[in-house]
């Protein structure tokens, strides 16, 4: 019997999600998005969490990624949408049980990213011991600037990180303040997931997180990387 559509797919496959590579026409295809929570001591304290506990890990769908200079609608189902500025790490290879000593050989490059959060939902879910998925993994919840290859910027372990809302500084820290550095983040994640080319890892945010409203412009900077600009509409 003939079929009215191709046998191998019942509908067109989802589009490839990718980010620009700084300094070239190449694109970085996103496979998965992993995020680290509680990786700066001052942020742990401002959120009222136990600073003796290790960082937590969660994920976002890859189509939550939004391009630099995007105009992002204020997220639905929340009245307390927050910004969290972070260093993002893009992988060109991966594996399981990667030792920290070789973890950086899997890194393609680095970018400035935001972990947008429905804070009211996150607090309600945390109080019940429930997963954070709806608080973290919604549409446009992962704005990201271009990825800079490690071959050109190295592997930043220090440097200024700064988030401005309407030109007012809200977050300011140094990458050296991360509790878990990039090699140890990669090593830890690879104990639980098989990491692979295209994985994007957000490494946590410092203190100063807060709400945004429609009309706000967010400007995220990390030394040596493309600045991220996002408008909330």
Automatic annotation (TrEMBL):
GO MF annotation: an example: acetylpyruvate hydrolase activity
Signal peptide bounds? none
InterPro entries reported in the protein's UniProt record: Fumarylacetoacetase-like_C (IPR011234), Fumarylacetoacetase_C_sf (IPR036663)
Q: Which Pfam families match?
A: FAA_hydrolase
Residues in a coiled coil are: none
Record key words, sorted: Hydrolase, Metal-binding
Q: Which Gene3D superfamilies match?
A: Fumarylacetoacetase-like, C-terminal domain (3.90.850.10)
Domain called Fumarylacetoacetase-like C-terminal: residue spans: 33-228
Entry protein name: FAA hydrolase family protein
Q: Which organism is it from?
A: Candidatus Dactylopiibacterium carminicum
């Amino acid at each position: 019997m003939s079929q009215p559509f191709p046998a191998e797919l019942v509908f067109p496959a989802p589009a490839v999600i990718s980010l620009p590579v700084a300094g070239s026409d190449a694109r970085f295809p996103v496979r998965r998005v992993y995020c680290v929570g509680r990786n700066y001591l001052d942020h742990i304290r401002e959120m009222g969490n136990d600073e003796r506990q290790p960082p937590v890990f969660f994920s976002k769908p890859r189509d939550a990624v939004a391009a630099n200079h995007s105009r992002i609608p204020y997220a639905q189902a929340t009245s307390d949408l927050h910004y969290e500025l972070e260093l993002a790490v893009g992988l060109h290879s991966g594996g399981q049980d990667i030792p920290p000593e070789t973890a950086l050989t899997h890194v393609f490059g680095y970018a400035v990213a935001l972990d947008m959060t429905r804070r009211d939902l996150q607090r309600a879910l945390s109080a019940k011991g429930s997963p954070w998925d709806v608080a973290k993994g919604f549409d446009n919840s992962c704005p990201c600037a271009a990825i800079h290859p490690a071959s050109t910027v190295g592997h930043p372990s220090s440097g200024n990180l700064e988030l401005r809302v309407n030109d007012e500084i809200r977050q300011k820290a140094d990458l050296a303040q991360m509790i878990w550095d990039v090699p140890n983040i990669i090593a830890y994640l690879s104990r639980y997931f098989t990491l692979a080319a295209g994985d994007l890892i957000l490494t946590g945010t410092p203190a100063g997180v807060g709400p945004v409203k429609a009309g706000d412009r967010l400007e995220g900077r990390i030394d040596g990387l493309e600045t991220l600009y996002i408008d909330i509409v």
